[in-house]
Amino acid sequence: MSMRERIKNGELFLDNCEGLPKDRLEAKQRMWQFNHLEPKNLERKAILVEEIFGEENSSWIEPPFYFCYGRNIKLGEKCYINFNCNFVDDGEIIIGNEVMFGPAVTIATVNHPIDPSIRPFMYAQAVTIEDNCWIGANVTICPGITIGKNSVIGAGSVVTKDIPENAIAAGNPCRVIRNINKQDMDYYGENKKILADDIKQIIKINGGAGK
C-alpha cells in the first residue's frame, strides 16, 4: 500500500515521500498568492480559487484562508468562508452547497496516536458538512465528523461527534440543543416576523442578488 493509499484509507502515515512535500509547497504558494491579492482584483481571485480547489467554484472566500493541500477540499457551490478559516486537509473535507462559515473556523482531518513513541505518525479521517449548514465563529470540527444538512453550530463550539440534520448544536463538547422548528422558519432575531414582501424588497434593493 502506498503512502497516499494509507492516507486515503485512514491508516498511519508520514508525509515526506511520494511527492507530498512538493504538493504542499505548491499549495502554500497558491495560498500565499490568494492571501496577498489586492482586494479589487476579482478576476485573479477567481482564477486562484480554481487553482486551489482544482475546479471552478461560485463560493466566496475571504482572505486570509489557510489549508494544507487545497485539492483535498471538495467545496460545494455558493458557500461563504469568512476570514481566518483553517482547513487541515490531509484527509478529505467534503462541503455541500450554500454552507456558511464564520471567521476562524478550524476543520481538522488529521489525528495522532496517544502513544508518545509513535505520536509523530498521523492518520486521516474525512470531515463532511452537508448542504445549507451554518458554522459559527471560532468553531473547531474534529477529524471524522459529519454535520447533517441545514444544521447550525454555535460560535466557539468544539465538534467531537456527528451532528444530525436540522439541528441547532453548541458547546464544548458540542451537543444538540434542539431541532430547527416552525418558530425558526417564521421568525428571526427577537421574534421578528419573516415577511415574504420584506425579503423581496431586500433582494430588489440589493440588485436582485439573493436566494
Q: How does the SSE layout of this entry go?
A:
Layout: H1 3-8, H2 20-35, H3 42-53, E1 60-61, E2 65-67, E3 73-75, E4 80-81, E5 85-88, E6 93-95, E7 100-101, E8 106-108, E9 110-111, E10 123-124, E11 127-129, E12 134-135, E13 140-141, E14 146-147, E15 152-153, E16 158-159, E17 167-170, E18 175-179, H4 182-186, E19 187-188, E20 192-193, H5 196-205
Parallel strand pairs: 1-4, 2-5, 3-6, 4-7, 5-8, 6-11, 7-12, 8-13, 11-14, 12-15, 13-16, 15-17
Antiparallel strand pairs: 9-10, 17-18, 19-20
The total strand number stands at 20
Oligomerization status of the protein chains: single chain
CATH class of the largest domain: Mainly Beta
Q: In CATH terms, what is the fold-level topology of the largest domain? A: UDP N-Acetylglucosamine Acyltransferase, domain 1
Strand order of the largest sheet: 1-4-7-12-15-17-18
- Estimated helix fraction: 10-25%
The tally of domains stands at 2
Mind telling me the C-alpha Rg?
19 Å
Describe this structure in words.
The chain has 211 residues and is of the alpha/beta class. The protein has 2 domains: 178 residues, UDP N-Acetylglucosamine Acyltransferase, domain 1 (3 Solenoid); 30 residues, no CATH class. The strands form 5 sheets. A 7-stranded mixed β-sheet has the order 1-4-7-12-15-17-18, with no helix packed on it. Strand 17 and strand 18 form a beta hairpin. Helix 2 packs antiparallel against helix 3. The longest helix is centred in the first third of the chain and has 16 residues. It is globular.
